[in-house]
Structure formats: C-alpha cells, structure tokens
Known about the structure:
single chain, about 800 residues, alpha/beta, 4 domains, 30 strands, elongated, NAD, oxidoreductase
Amino acid sequence: MKVLKFGGTSVGSVEAIGKVAEILKKESGQEQLVVVVSAMSGVTNTLISISQKAAVRDASYESDLQALEEKHCTAFKKLTGNSNCFEISKLFVRLTEICRGVYLLRELTPRTSDYIQSCGERLSSYIISEHLKKEGLQVELFDSRKYLITHKKFGGANVLWQSTKAALQELKPQLAPISVFPGFIASTSDNETSTLGRGGSDYTAAVLANVLGASQLEIWTDVNGLMTADPRLVPSAHLLEHVSYEEALELSHFGAKVLYPPSIQPALDAEIPIWVKNTFDADGPSTLVTKEWDDDKQAICGISNIQDIALLNLSGASMVGIPSFSFRLFKALSEAKINVIMITQATSEHSICVGISKSDAQAALEAISEEFETEILLHKIDKPIVEEDLSVVALVGSHMKNQVGISGKMFNTLGRNGISVKAIAQGSSERNITAIIAKPDLKKALNTLHESFFLSESKKINLFVVGVGNVGKAFLSQVQRQQTMLAKEFRVDIQVVAVANSRKSHFDEDGIDLAQWEQLLDKGNDSTIEAFITQMTELNLRNSVFIDMTASKTIAEVYQELLEMSISVVTPNKIAATREMSKYLSLKYATKKYGSQFLFETNVAAGLPVISTMNDLFKSGDRIHAIHAVLSGTLNYLFNNYDGTKPFSNIVKDAKKLGLTEPDPRLDLSGEDVMRKLLILIRESGRKWEMDQIEQVSFLPEACEQAKDLEEFYALLDQNEGHFKAIYDDAKAEEAQLRVVASFKDGVAKVGLEKVQKSHPFYFLEGKDNIVLFHTDRYQEQPLVVKGAGAGAEVTASGIFADVLRIANQ
C-alpha cells in the first residue's frame, strides 16, 4: 500500500486535477493506493474570509459563497461531464445556513469555524473521486471524519490514537484499489467536525500511512522536492535527492515550506520513507526522506532561513547566579503565547537573548517588562531591548558533527562579505548552526554560504563599473572575451552588474550582456554617482567589486564608504591613494576591518606588476632602500618621439589620441602624475609620506603651467616650441636620452627631467615603456627590475582585470 497526498496547488485547477489523474493511472494496479487531497488552492482562505465577514455582518459574504459554489460546480462539470451538481449544491445549502447563523448571531465559534473550513477538502475530494471514476479507475471516497477521531480542541485538534487506530483497522479490509480521503478534517468522539490545524492534510496522510502500514508516503506538491536553499533567493540552489528525517525536519523548521515537521511525525514514528514529488513534473527528479542517509561527501545538506525575526535582549549584572531567572523569562513568554525560535545566553550570565517572530515583538516586550518590573525599577537589570528587521539563516546537515571547521567556514564567509552576526546558536545534535543577521543581508548571506558550501569550486564576482572611456571599453571587452574560459577553467564567474558614465547607468542583477553594453547604457537611466552607489548598495550582492575608471575626485571620496560596506574597490584613479596620509591609512584600515580589498596596481605603471612586487617583497621581510623609476609611459612616448621635426604640441595630441595620456594631458606633463606614482610607491614601501615632501623640477615653461584650459595649453606649447627644441638639442649633443625620472633614496624624493647616458638602464626605454628599479636588502648590487609598457588602454585594462582576479582568488 502507498499513501499519496496532493496539496492545494496540485488540485487547484481543472488542469492540475487532470495531472493528478494521470499520476494515479500510472500508479494504479501496482499496489493499493490511499489518496489524501487538500482543498483547491485558495479555497480555505476564502472560507475563512467568508466566515469572518459573516461574523461582522458584512453581507458581501453571500456573493463570495455564490462565487465559491460556482467555482466548484464549474470544475465538477468540466472534470466529470456531468451537469448535475446536486451533491455540491447540497453542501453549499448547509454551508449557507451556518454562515447565515453566524451573521445573525455575530458570533464565530472555533467549532463553527472548523465546520466551515472543512468544506474545502470535502468538496475537492468529492470532485476528484468523481473525475477518477469517469477515467475508469476503481475509486471509493471515504469521509475522514469517520476515521480520524480527535479531542474537542477546535482549530487544531489532537488525534486520539487509540480510537483512530481502531476505526482505521476496521476500515482497512474495505479499502478500494484507490481510496480517496479529504485531508485536514476529522471529528470528535461526539461526531462534531474538527480540523487538524496547519499542515493538516500532511498529518492526515501520515496518520493513514502509519496505521494502515503503508510502504511509502508521497507528498505531491508544486516543486520537485527539498532544495539546498530557497530558489527564489538563491538561483543556484539545487534539488536534494536524499535526506534523513532529522535533516528534513531541521530544514522544514527553518523555512523550507515543503514539509511541516509536526504533520509528518506519524510517518517518522513508523520509519516510512517519504517522497516529495512535483505534480507538474511527475517524471522529474524528487527528494527521498528516510530514517538514515549516509552521505559523508557533504557536511551540510541545505541552508534555510526564517524572515521577519526580532531579537529580544535582556541584560544586567544582577542576572548572574539567579536560578529562577530563565524560568521567569520563558514562563512570561509562554503565558503571552509567544513562540521562541532561538535562544542564546552568555556564559557570564550577564545577558540572554531570544529570537522571536517580528509580529510577537511588542507583546514579548510588554510581557518581559511586566514580569521584571521590580528588577528594572531597582536597576538590577536593564530595560529589555527588541531589535527588529532581522532574519535567521541556518546550516543544516547530519554530518556536521563529524567534521571540524564548519562554523569557522560559515562565519568567515559571512564576515568576508560584511555580514554582521547578531546572535549564534547550535543544537546539541550538531545538525544545525544558526545565526541571526540583518534582514537586508539575507539574500547576500544565503548566496554567499551556498556558494561556499555547495559550489566550492566556483566563485561569483559582481562588478560595478564606473567610467567607460578608452580603458573602460578595453576592460569590458577583455572581460567579455574571458568570461567563458574563466568559468570553465578556473571556476570564476565574473558578472558585470552595472556600467555607468557621467550621465547614465544601466543595472542588471543577473549580469549585463557585454556584447551590447553600449546600447544598454545609451538607453539607461539618468544617474549620478550618489544614485549609482545607492542602487549598488541596495542590491547588496556578495563579492561586490566597485571599479572606478575615472579621474574623478568626487568618486574617489566614496571609496571609504564602500570599503566599510565590504565592497572591494579596484581603480587606476590615483587620487585616493595620494591624499593625506591619514586618509590613505584609513582606507587600508577599512580593508582589514571589513574584509574588503582596495587594489590600485594600475596607479603606477598600468598593467606592470609593480605594487604587487613591492608588497611581496615587503611581506616576505625584505626592505626597500631606494627606488629609481621612469613611471610615465606618456612622457616616455613624448621624448622618444620628439626630435624637433614636428611640434612638441603635436606629439602630445598624438599621445592623447592613442589613449596614452590622462583625460587632461596637463597632469602628465606637469609631472604631478609621476609625483603621485612615486608617492604611492613610497607609501607602499611602508613609509609615511606626503606629496609636499617630493621635490619637483618641471620641464615646462612657467607660462604653460598657468594655462586656464587645454586649448590655451596647446597654444602655449606652440609658442614655446623653441624651449622644447633647446632641451632636445642639448641632450642630443651629449648623446643622451631625455627621461622624466622619479627617485627615492636616503629620505629624499624627487621628480624631474634628466639626461641619461647609454650606460644607464633607462637609456634604451622604447615607446611608452616604464621601468622601476628596486634596491633592497636582498637586491643591493643588482636592483630588482620591473619593465614593460606603462601606458595604454589595453595594458591598463589588463592590470585592472588582474586586480579583479586577485580578489576572486582570495
């Protein structure tokens, strides 16, 4: 014998009931079937609404009743081909009489409410059994009220097991090949209709399976089974093929709606296997729940959650050592009919907090305040505090007790993503680890934990890109080309969630199609950096990385805020790393405190690994004594290509067209850009240094430095062409090359144009190349040399990409 229970969505429409019939046709003939059905989807709520309207003399209940009768008659006619709805009409006549009585008396007792609610299952079971008969199946409809006997607690009655067993054992020989029972309903020993409360249809099925000795219980619903997480919040959640009873109960307690723990207890007591299947995907995968399931490959089986939680905190020095304190606390909550979801107490006994439903928060606060009124007045304990807008997230798995490090992994994962844990609890069975977090962090927490525990070979990185000029375009193109390879070969899933320029932005939480990002941005919303940051933080995605490819001071000023929200920052923008030392250190501190990263490799030499090389030296114990470098690919390009035959201003314009300069080339030619780069290197070497400590020797005429705008600057370069020609001729006469050199040694930092001879490492630099010489404890006689292209959109973009991958590999 097999017991099959079909929920409200499975019998919610004519089409759905047709699916049920197909399933039963396939199952029939193999073994005896006992079928338990819920009311059609939404009917129970409608019946409750009707009864409540009648109780307050809202006459609209009558039209609601008529609509409900019409709904069931229509379904009956379509499913049976019979236009005579006599049995349905008869039930509605009685239902109308009862509702009329409620209307006249203005009273809705629990007993009357149970009778009204019972009509949903009575109607659906009748319609379904008649449809099955029409389909040629051997079917018998049984009224559950004759066989499930309860005490007189209406609205959630308890089954009287001895009476129920006796009635069902007597019925067993009379069961048909397919026996249909309405779920949820029962009766008292006085034959008064009662209901079994939440999960009542599941409970009916479990009782029948237990008493009748079923080989298995099948719960048919609108999902394929239990999932590793809520798929509405975690798109990567997948089906659990097999779990133990204990795991299923834990998952269900913490929010998995497929099973309601108390309702399936009778099946668990008899160790009956439970299948959770999808009515609308009958041949698809499903979940099997059994007493034992030995899968030691996975420490946890799922991640569940409960939303809308409040945390009640009670603290005070006088709580220590008071034996009755906890008793009084929970007694007060119990008397107020408040369910406690989670408990945690400090071992110092100075504080205790309990997790409760948000809807119970005010009642709990009042109950506790009243219970401990005297102690609060005497300042023996503090006033209770309720923190709302919280959620519970729980790891569930039978094998957690056999593995070390699960808690550490959980809290490390949450911490890296800036998710603060308000309270922690773990059951003595070690089957769950529970944490209370802020509700806005729930989606991020679930996805981060799911990725960490179930997709350990894959990591999703969410990019928010601001600035789509030459470098930005090159970066997005590189990401597009590498996305598939990175996901396949390195298990790094890089998604660009947002792009923005100075006017517009476009967001797509599922990832922007990079083949058409420009068109999408053109059609995007008008935006400011403030609006962009707000939208990004509201999305609150895990592993978020903000990429600033502008030269904006305004944008650089938001880095601190982002890092403190555990959003990493990658940028070629030098402003943040070259502001006052205190602000630079504040950024560094934020990364340590909030688990974010601030990476700016491209600040110094585009894609060349200069900063990362320095950091590796520093971390490994080496000490940097001197730095000599050509740090401007732009200036190197200018002096490598200027020979006096073409105006210096034209060479500058050519460099700008090639994307080798800053948006404003004056930053490059003034030497300020090189000064910033040198300052960054000095700071990254472990020294506290400010910009005004660097000596600058400008090669520009003073008039050029005073130019009001770029147009005037170009004009002044032309007017001073003789100045640049003289510099060139002087170097040529000495067979030297012109290089803007940045140097730091013995506490002296300097940037200026120098003539270098053939014997110098800088002499043979070509095109836009950069070179950095590090003199360290380990590299004394021969410096460590980093050399290569130091400017250009492609190489800068590749450096930004490399920083993103460093974050992905953490």
